[in-house]
Amino acid sequence: MAVIAIYSLKGGVGKTTLAVNCAWSSAVASARRTLLWDLDPQSAATWLLGGDTRSRDTAQAIFTKDVDAAKLVAPTAFDRLDLLGADSSLRDLDILFHELDKKKRLAKLVGGLNKAYDRLILDCPPGLTQTAEQVMRAADLIVVPVVPSPLSARAFDEVARHLDQKGAKVPLLPVHAMVDRRRTLHREALARQPDWPALPMASMVEAMAARRAPLGSFAASSPPARAFSALWQAIEKRLARSK
Description:
With 243 residues, the chain is α/β, with parallel strands linked by helices. It contains 11 helices and 8 strands. The longest helix is centred in the C-terminal third of the chain and has 20 residues, at 223-242.
């Protein structure tokens, strides 16, 4: 099982949109047994995939081992795609990790799911936190959405610098997100990093919330859906090279 974390130091850069569409591409387009694990207390990925966000304590109980993670996995409406949902109890997850003082707790929990899935997508909350440190130890690849702006680029540089200082070997895959090619700033950013995958800002992407479904499930031929598909292919190629 390969573990792909969708993470950014900065919020509002499209992490959840990216995570849900990558999970769908993995399960449907690549026909891989896929689990999306929502680690964000906002539980947006859980809601988009039809999960129950009303619970207030079960999501964090996985990390105290009061509840077996496998028992909380739920199927989605899409073949081969399962969901490990989030709820508001994850607001205190950083405090819990600090109290537990188990630096590889997430990695060990992930290991327990290894035989059931081919791909695990982690939808991560923003910030350089205890949760982020756990993710960095558990992931095989960290995909970082970067809006073409100085603040978002700075946030990516901070993540790369942090991993370098820690001596972490997990590779990063930066992705231009929410791209509007009408904007000079965005065009200049794309020109500086032409090898990064790019995902457009589009009303069709926003329609995911209305439909509560991944883009590929209702608009597979649209330009943004094709962009997400190309990104997933790039992720698969990166994973293949790292074997």
